[in-house]
Every structure is written in C-alpha cells, then in structure tokens.
TrEMBL record:
<protein>
    <recommendedName>
        <fullName>DNA primase/polymerase bifunctional N-terminal domain-containing protein</fullName>
    </recommendedName>
</protein>
<feature type="domain" description="DNA primase/polymerase bifunctional N-terminal">
    <location>
        <begin position="11"/>
        <end position="156"/>
    </location>
</feature>
<dbReference type="InterPro" id="IPR015330">
    <property type="entry name" value="DNA_primase/pol_bifunc_N"/>
</dbReference>
<dbReference type="Pfam" id="PF09250">
    <property type="entry name" value="Prim-Pol"/>
</dbReference>
Length: 727
C-alpha cells in the first residue's frame, strides 16, 4: 500500500476506516491537550487537530472509541519471554511491529477490557478503554500480519481482564515441576537476564545487575527456578564482566541484596496452555507431512510455490532487527529486505570463527540483493562499512573487488575472516563464471566454491615452484562472506548462458524486494546507534571473551585452529530441521538430473546457518537455536532457493541454443502484448543473427510458448509478422 504523503493525510485515512485518531509527538506523547480523549473519526476534526497541534506520529484511541484493543509486547521489559511460549497462538492475529522492535497484536474490542501493565506477564501490556497506541504502520514500520482484527482468544482475554491479585508464595505441592533447574519460562528468563548483565555498557551495569537479580529472585519465589541454579548462574554472569567493574565487591552486594529482595516478592506468571506441536508453514508440500507418517507430496506443475511473504522474512529482532530499523529510517528509499540481507551477512561474518553449529557449520554466507538502479540498493552496504569502522573491526572487511584467487589467499593469511562487499555483483559474477572469464577471474570462482565449505577445516594454500622463497600458506577455519548488490537485469544477464551445475551460483542466497521503488521519504539524519556498534563488537569477540575497548588481544590467528562456541539446538528445533530435510529430499527427487538439484541441495545447510545467525543476533553471549529461529531459517532458505530457481528457469541455459531461445522469449515477454519481427531483432541489440533469432522462434513456436500472426497495414505492400506469448 502506498502511504499518503503527509501525516495529516494518513491520519484522515485511518479516521475514514473508523479509527479515532489524534496527533502525537515523536516521543509518542500526545501533542494536543487531553490526548486520546479528543481522538476523532471525523476527517474535518482530524485536520483541525493536526493544524493546531501538528504531530509526527498518529495515536489511535483503543477500546470502544475505535472498536479495537491491543496487546503490547515490550521485549525490553521481558515480553519476549512470554512471547516465546505463546507466539504460536497468535499467528493468525493482526500484528504491527513497533519502532523499538516490539509488537502490537490488534483485536476487536471486548467489553470490559481496559488498560493494564504487566497483568498477563512482565512486558505484556493491554490497551483497551482509557488508552491508546501509536499506529506504527503509518510511520513506516512493517505489518507482520495484515489480517483484519479478530475477537480475543477466550483464554487470553480472561488473562487480560483478570483482576490483579496480591502475589503469595506458592505451596511446594502446587509449584511447577522443574527440569534442569527450572521451568522453560524460568530458564528462558534467566538466560535473557544474564545476557542483559553481560552486554550492559558502562554506566548501565549496576542498573542491569539490580534489575536482573530482583527479577530472577521473584521467579525463584514463584517456583519457576531452582534457587541454587539461579544464584550460581547470575554470579557466573557477573564474574564474566569482573574486569569491567570498578568495585566488584559492591557489585556482588548489589546482586545479593536484589536477589533476596526479589525472593520476597514472588512474580505472578500467567501462561497460555502449551501447544501440542509447533506448526510450520514453509510450503503446501510441508503441510501434508506428519510427524509420525512420512508421505510423499503430490508433485506440482511446473514447480512448487512456497509463498513466503516479506513480512515473514522480516520477523526478526536483536541486532538484525535494529539494523533493519535504522537502515529503513535513514534511507531515502527504505528497502527493509535489502537491509535484512546485509544484516544477515554482517552477523555471519562478525560471528566468524567464534560460533559453530552442533554439526560444525560456521556462519559464512554468500548473499546478493537485486534492486533496480535508483532503488536504494547501496544504503545497507554503506551502513555495514560505517558499523565496522566505528567498531574498530576494519580487518574483517575485504576489498570491494577481488583481483584473483591468489589475492584471496593473501588476504586470508593476514586475517582469516573476510567480508567482501561487491557492488555490481552481476558484472563480477559474469567475469568469474562467464565463458570469456580470464584465468585469474575463473580462479576466483574456484576458490570461492572451496572456501564456502572450508570454514570448519584447514584451507590449503597454493604450492609454488620456488617453495623456499614462496612457501605455501595454509589458513585454519577461513570464514569468507560476500554481500553483493546488483540490478536484476545485470545479474540475470550474467547467469544467462552460464552453467549452474558447477555450484558457485547455488551457494548464493538471493534476495529481491517486491518493489524496487518504494515511496521516497525524508531520511532520519540520526547518528549510528551505539547499540549497533556495541553489538557488533560483542559478536566479533564471541561468548568466551570479555568486552574490551580494543579487540587486538583476542585477534584471530589464521595459523591455528579456531575453538568456537557450539550453538545448541533448543527443544523442538531438531524436529523442525528434520522436516525441512525431508522437504529438501523431495525436491532433490523431483529435480533429479537437472541443475536445480545444485540449488536445492543446500536448503537445510543454509537454514541452519541462518537460524544460528538469528540466535546470535538475539543473544551473542549464550545463543540457543530456538524453534522459531529454525523455522525462520527454513523460511529464508526456501524463499532464496525459490528466487534463484525461478530466475534460473527464466534466464539460465545449459547450452548456446537454449540460451538463444531464452533470450528471445525474454525479449518477447518484455515487449508487452506483441512485437514485430523487426522490432524484436532490434531489441536483441545484435546479440543474435537473424538466422539465430528465427531458429529460436521456431523452437518456441513448436513448444507452443509463443504464437505468430501476420497482417498487412494500410498502404503496406507486404504483411508484417508479429510474435506474442502463448496463452
């Protein structure tokens, strides 16, 4: 949807939809006296409000005023803990992402629902009668689910309306059963609070420690955590930042006192009933699969369509979510999909040799974003440079071009992690895999194929005849990543005629937004958030290292094997991966004997890498691959596979004849309804002779993919032949 140009016109549009609106300042406070009490659905009154009290944001009065209520999820105050357990129950509800990375779930107003804070769980607020929300989609934030508002689920509305009860210690017999030291809710909360301690910057450590200890003490009192496990885990987190504490004994006293105070105030934890299983919506074929019975899905002609939406791909938080938010607000043409692709590659590169999966996969990825010229494809790449430079991590960046395969060897021998950011990636690939590729450039393609699978082992250098003067340089655990940008035509022209069997193209994750030209905006000129810089340094340092102002003491030695932290799978994640691997096998069987097998053979591998990247982005101190991480990783991997498969089907060719046929077909497709033979020849721009054009047309006509017709224009002596797509 194209948004109206001004906030006033956007507010009028919402009023026309029956929402009572009023102006708010950029800090979310009302800019008019009486705030939501003067909210209106009358267009003229709305215009008057904005003329007299201009506001950058649009407030919507909740409750009976607009007929809607909102469930406000604040991850910065513990809301993500509850959401991890209950998100699956909210999958069908309308959902807006907030500017800070939270969520607003929108429901039809239920009589009696009023404002409340933390009644359902910490970080979970309700907005009903007597309250308001900011309508974030009108401020450029994504709509994660654009379905119409539905009625509240019965069990959820009962929690929202439940009167606040004074918390009392639960009898031992009624407390939840503990496994591994706590309930899933308690252990997740403990993990999050420990991350807050270890990631707190100077000036925030005391507050973070006090809040974490008090909160966890409350969960011990409620029976959600074992006291010994909670206390020892908190102390371990404090010990990990000992070198950054000015007065460690004072910090220990703070932990002890806040922990005991929390035990005296048991937390009231409300949960929706647990799910029987985790649902996945990767593809129609996956919907037919059972956990207990393996069934072969019915083949679909011509290719299965997985229909994974952009809003699903963008359902991320942590560093990646913050990167997307900043990139979107500071770009003249906001391109959140391009920002997602860039952030994924950056996290994968920074995590480098610090993390690996249980199967030994590292986070190196080759990624390309396709956006037409003038669409804003360069902005995210510039942000990567800025973050890396300000985080003092420039050694992680490679050059913006690669001269030869030997140049890659030399770069890795000085630093085993390299993120290459390639503009005009289509031209770069054409030089490496095209039929006219020079020996130096062809060697790059060969090196990149080897390096994509060498991160968990040693990469052997080149042997030279004068070995004494030029000894072989081996590199342990090289992590090479690529983030490229290209126009679609440039990229697919590079692929056309290239062989996809050799596998380099199959190693790329391909992203392309639905719209290359979103509406322009006046970009936010704000400075790079310190949180992005700090998070980048945390990921580069890894979970085993203290935060230091200079990372040189933990600099990576390419001559020694890495000792990464193994990111474990959380409960339920392995089952999701198993179903994804089954789907991959079905695709391999479907496409056996074709180049498409090289594209789909890495879906599961890429999904694991992506899930690990998402987990690290959320919690670099102690990441765990959650079911949601694994499901999202599968979605992204399959969406990228489908994008590459569909483009390859349209442009790539196995031989010269097939390349000519596809070239002619694409020119006909771009021409519109029909095109004359002479105009078609001109559009080919000399790439084919008339004979080659006619041979390609004959093949397409025989395959019933085009239709030919002739007619004589008034005054013409000979008829003109026209070509159009069949059907």
């Amino acid at each position: 949807m194209t948004l109206p140009r001004t906030t006033e016109e956007r507010a009028v549009a919402l009023a026309g939809a029956g929402l009572a609106v009023f102006p708010c300042r950029d800090d979310k406070a009302p800019s008019c006296p009486d705030g939501f009490k003067v909210a209106s659905t009358d267009p003229e009154e709305v215009r008057r409000l904005w003329r007299e009290y201009p506001g950058a944001l649009i407030g919507v009065a909740t409750g009976s005023a607009s007929g809607i209520d909102a469930l406000d999820i604040d991850p910065q105050n513990g809301g993500d803990v509850w959401l991890d357990e209950c998100e699956q129950f909210l999958a069908d509800e309308r959902c807006h992402q907030t500017r800070s990375g939270g969520r607003h779930y929108i429901f039809k107003h239920h009589e009696g629902v009023r404002n409340s804070a933390g009644r359902i769980a910490p970080g979970i607020d309700v907005r009903g009668d007597g309250g308001y929300i900011i309508w974030w989609p009108m401020a450029g934030c994504p709509v994660l689910n654009d379905d119409d508002a539905r009625l509240w689920p019965d069990d959820l509305v009962s929690l929202a309306m439940k009167p606040v009860e004074r918390a009392v210690s639960a009898p031992v017999s009624s407390r939840p059963a503990l496994q591994d030291g706590g309930t899933p809710y308690g252990l997740r909360a403990l993990e999050n609070e420990c991350y807050e301690i270890t990631s707190a910057g100077d000036g925030r450590k005391h507050a973070a420690l006090n809040k974490a200890a008090y909160s966890i003490g409350g969960l011990v009192a409620s029976g959600d955590l074992d006291e010994g496990v909670a206390r020892s885990t908190l102390r371990a987190s404090l010990n990990s930042i000992r070198s950054r504490c000015r007065d460690f004994r004072a910090a220990e006293r703070t932990l002890q006192e806040a922990f005991q105070a929390g035990i005296g105030k048991p937390r009231q934890v409300n949960r929706m009933q647990p799910a029987d299983s985790i649902s996945d919506d990767w593809a129609p074929m996956l919907k037919t699969m059972s956990d207990d019975v393996e069934e072969e899905p019915e083949p679909k002609d011509p290719d299965p369509d997985f229909s994974i939406t952009e809003k699903r791909l963008l359902s991320v938080g942590g560093f990646i979510g913050d990167f997307i938010e900043h990139a979107t607000h500071t770009a003249r043409r906001p391109q959140p999909v391009a920002a997602l692709a860039a952030a994924i590659t950056l996290v994968g590169s920074l995590a480098g040799r610090r993390y690996c999966s249980p199967s030994g996969l590292y986070t190196n990825l080759y990624v390309t974003t396709l956006i037409d010229s003038g669409g804003g494809k360069d902005h995210a790449r510039k942000l990567i440079k800025e973050i890396v430079a300000m985080a003092n991590l420039s050694k992680w960046l490679g050059g913006e071009d690669i001269a030869s395969g030997a140049a890659i060897n030399t770069a890795l021998s000085t630093h085993p992690i390299r993120l290459y950011m390639i503009d005009e990636a289509g031209d770069f690939l054409a030089q490496c895999i095209g039929k006219k590729a020079s020996q130096h450039k062809a060697q790059i393609a060969q090196k990149l194929k080897i390096l994509s699978t060498s991160a968990n082992t040693v990469f052997l250098g080149t042997d030279y005849a004068n070995a004494k003067e030029r000894p072989r340089e081996d590199v342990w655990n090289p992590v090479v990543s690529i983030y490229g940008t290209s126009t679609p035509s440039q990229f697919w022209n590079a692929v056309a005629g290239a062989s996809l069997h050799d596998g380099l193209m199959a190693r790329f994750l391909l992203f392309e937004p639905a719209n290359s030209y979103p509406d322009t905006q006046n970009p936010d000129a704000s400075d790079l958030p310190a949180s992005l810089i700090g998070s980048a340094r945390l990921m580069a340092a890894g979970p085993k290292y203290d935060q230091r102002p200079n990372l040189e003491p933990v600099m990576i030695d390419p001559s020694r094997p890495a000792t990464p932290f193994t990111v474990p799978f959380g409960m339920g994640s392995s089952a999701i991966l198993s179903r994804l691997e089954t789907a991959q096998d079905e695709l391999l069987k479907r496409y056996a004997g074709t180049y498409v097998t090289s594209l789909c053979a890495r879906i599961a591998e890429n999904a694991i890498k992506l899930a690990m990247i998402r987990a690290i982005s959320n919690n670099p101190a102690s990441p765990i691959i959650s079911p949601e991480d694994m499901s999202w990783g599968g979605d992204v991997a399959i969406a990228c596979f489908q994008k590459m498969r569909d483009g390859a089907n349209r442009y790539a060719a196995e031989n010269e004849n097939q390349a000519r046929v596809k070239l002619v077909l694409e020119c006909v497709r771009r021409s519109g309804k029909e095109v004359s033979l002479s105009k078609l020849y001109r559009s080919l721009n000399g790439r084919l002779t008339i004979r080659e054009r006619d041979e390609a047309i004959k093949v397409l006509e025989d395959e019933k993919r085009i239709c030919l017709s002739s007619r004589t224009s008034p005054g013409a002596k000979k008829p003109t032949t026209y070509v159009r797509l069949a059907g």
